[in-house]
TrEMBL record:
Signal peptide range: 1-20
InterPro entries: Cu-oxidase-like_N (IPR011707), Cu-oxidase_2nd (IPR001117), Cu-oxidase_C (IPR011706), Cu-oxidase_fam (IPR045087), Cupredoxin (IPR008972)
Protein name: Monocopper oxidase-like protein SKU5
Protein family: Belongs to the multicopper oxidase family.
Coiled coil: none
Domain Plastocyanin-like per the UniProt entry, residue ranges: 34-143, 159-306, 404-525
GO molecular function, one term: copper ion binding
Amino acid sequence: MASLLVWTIWISVLVAVANGADIFLNWTVAFDTTIRPASVNQPVITINGLFPGPLINATTNDFVHVNVFNDLDEPLLFTWNGIQQRLNSWQDGVSGTNCPIQPGRNWTYVFQTKDQIGSFFYFPSINFQKAAGGYGPIRVNNRYVINVPFPKPEAEFDLLIGDWSYDNYKSTRSMLGNSVIAYYNTPDMILMNGKGPYGHRMSKAYESFTVTKGNTYRFRISNVGSSVSVNFRIQNHQMVLVETEGSYTDQIRIDSLDVHVGQSYSVLVTADQDDSDYYIVASSKFLNTSNSSALVGIGVLHYSNSLTQVNGPLPSGPDPFDLTFSVNQARSVRWNLTTGAARPNQQGTFNVTNITLSQTFVLESSELEIGGVPRYAVNNISYSVPDTPLKLVDQFGNLTGSYQLDRFPTHSVNDQAAYEVSVVTGIHKGWIEIVLQNDVIAIDCWHLDGFGFYVVGLGDGKWTSEARRFYNLYDPVVRSTVQVYPKGWTAIYAYLDNPGMWNLRSQKLKNWYLGQELYIRVHDDDPNPAKERPPPADLLLCGMHMLTNNLFYQFNSYNSV
């Protein structure tokens, strides 16, 4: 009897752990002109007075409730970069899924970190607001019943690295109709956790992390910038790469790490040097800079018993234009096949060795002009944001014809540059191959909401089907943001088991804002909410198409069932 009681209690504990806890957060989002990370009078978007915003510290399967009060002077949305929103694209927080929170109003996001672990971040997704801040870190920790493939570190540090402009983001936004600003304008500074480079005349403060000799620390690093890839390194310290965007990686020892826009990594750093202070560096990739440039982010690793400030030259890194280094490092980031992640079974249980592809998309990004206006495009189509979110329209059967499903060309470049509300079918529970072709001389980064994808190949020049012979199908890393090198291609596989309306976009802010995106509609006809959740009862409504009594009646009837 006692053993039965113990077993029952243990089962109850496992069920509670599997279901996750509820986390309740209240955020007030506002402008602050006093923070001045670059000593320039400009509005910074803060959350509860913080820049960067507060940490979301969750565990696998937790439910996160974020009540967002919009104290800005324009509409606002947040997206949760890398959180897959299983069966629930209603919470994804992009223009195709959600109506924005109007100034002076609030709305509560409720999402689950279902079957995920890892390092991620959030940011405002519309109106070019990410250029003014509003971003912050997300940790999804392992449940205690899951073994982590490295000893518990002494502490964890979140490090958000990103490029920053001295200009007011609204001014930059208003000038994107100028091709020089749209295509060639570069940022002014690299920030670390919202602080400028150590020792730079324009920096109001610098970032510092305190460690104790002999201990090991986990740095969760995200590139939250708008356009610039960085190379990250710590003076006299090697790092061990252990995780990226929810996947445990083969543990490789590195001197520096390329982190591209929108990407997140975890590295372990052991404080194994003499008690002193050491430079932390994030230097810009593919830009001409000097060590004194504000485009070299500089922080400090401070040993607790140090009496010596940082001094001397910065630690050298790879040549910023060395594509070979970057490509080789990208190929060395492999999936750890033998460890569990969100679940106890090994990551390698899920693999792409013998899958059958259901679809292939070949998507070429480019710069172009439409009617004399600079735009970014995919297959010569520049995305036009409709006044009603696609997911909302889709809920009522696209009665108003807001978009034409599968009109977008997924295998070829359109003959003429054009605007389009680009929505394509993704076959539910099918495997899709997406080839991302970069037609410009700048590096690009792509992100897919709703899924982790397998990075199976990358190369230069034009992709052809012959490239499949060289794909890595054994241990490709699974992530949600991937770089595409200049005049090159990257190929990914994804299993479309998550019904919803999912954004596929460039992570480079100007590219995204000026049209480099599309949506993949993964649909399951089964109305069972276990297949896809219904819209929340407090769903925000917007757009001319929602102003008819007919649609309001359908919406209210749906929610009264």
